[in-house]
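User: Can you predict the 3D structure for this chain?
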Amino acid sequence: MDPGSFIIKFVLPPVLGAVIGLFTNYLAIKMLFRPFKPKYIFGIRIPFTPGVIPKEHQKLAEKIGATVGDHLLSNESLHELFKKEAVRKKISEALDNMYGQFGMLSAFITADIRKMISEKVIEMMDSELPAVISELDIKATVEEKVKDFSLEKLETLILSVTKTQLAYVTYFGGVLGFVIGCAQFLTYLI
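Assistant: Here is the predicted structure, written as structure tokens:
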């Protein structure tokens, strides 16, 4: 068998498979984000434009808002944060600092009065905070913030978290293409 024929039958399929696998996975990952707007040829929209993320930007914002608002920063979990002893201590310290702003009047605010005021403020927070937190509407706030992200910023944010994993997906495409090329090479032997 001459060297040219050997290369074409045995070396080229795995190498081409690897290149095709790398390219197709790279392209698929790019198509998650790009293009940002639909593309048209002769008035006909090109399939898969815009990319998945730009096309589903609204739904993505809704899901992120729901996840954060319902599971990560729910009204109950925020209220629980304010019940922590460290937070209550900070509130008491802030009130103590506030008394110093009253000038000469602060001399009339005794330690007992300060303690009573701190206790009343914390008691009021325990009773009123759930209503205040529900007015914050974390879900809607996060949803609006994500909707306001430019597509470039959203792409940068997602890639900053997933860049390594997406690189592995690209490389896996090359490895898989190489393996398929080797399988094709084996069919020449049979």
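Helices lie at 3-33, 52-55, 57-72, 75-82, 85-99, 111-136, 138-148, 151-189. Strands lie at 40-41, 44-45.
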